[in-house]
Amino acid sequence: MLLEICASNYQSAVNAQKAGAHRIELCSELAVGGITPSYGLLKKVMEELTIPVMVLIRPRSGNFVYSAADFDIMKRDIELCKELGCAGIVSGVLTSDFKIDIRRTSELIELSRPLPFTFHRAFDHVVNPEEAVVDLVNLGAKRILTSGQHAKAIDRIENLKQYQKLAGKELTIMPGGGINAGNCYAFAKANFKEIHASATEIMEQTSEEKVSMNSPKFLQENVEVFSSQKNIETILKNLNNEI
Hints:
Elements: E1 2-7, H1 10-19, E2 23-26, H2 39-48, E3 53-56, H3 68-84, E4 88-91, H4 102-112, E5 117-119, H5 129-139, E6 143-146, H6 157-167, E7 172-175, H7 184-189, E8 194-197, H8 229-242
Parallel strand pairs: 1-2, 1-8, 2-3, 3-4, 4-5, 5-6, 6-7
Helix pairs in contact: 3-4, 5-6
């Protein structure tokens, strides 16, 4: 069975290679489900590691319904990944009614060629996963990363098996979400070809943080955060009134 490690920083990528993982998905910010890694991180990993590198293309946290500007950024990032010699692209787009965005996902898949395209865990938000599997087979995706629409893949392994049955040999279902040393064998026993895990370990900081940089209100998956033009104008207006 192939083990893909979700590496959200350089050290994680190095550790994955040293440990013998077969492939990594490179991203940043696991706390929000992952976003596209920086150019610097991507280039360093590509130059210094030999393990195959799949790259997450997700321009921001929040939902998977993207503006024209978001989508343009995604396409530019895919082109960069191809130039740097990445092994594959991991991405996906949904419609506002939680279906696969056929047109945009098709465009990303075509742009990614000849690299294989993995539709990521946006899949776990779709209202009809069986229909979505068929859509992605028809679009030419090579795999789907999914937890079976549950926090932990092990709790929905029957869903995952059903998805693979629907996909046949055309597309690989790659279970991911809460997979660890204690439950990984269950997926091998169920005849899955690949699994995805972060294998994370929390390292204690040596000093106590004085001011938290976390903003819980920004971490909600059903919101998109942006700097408001109106709020900026109001701040400037108030500043100018004080001069």
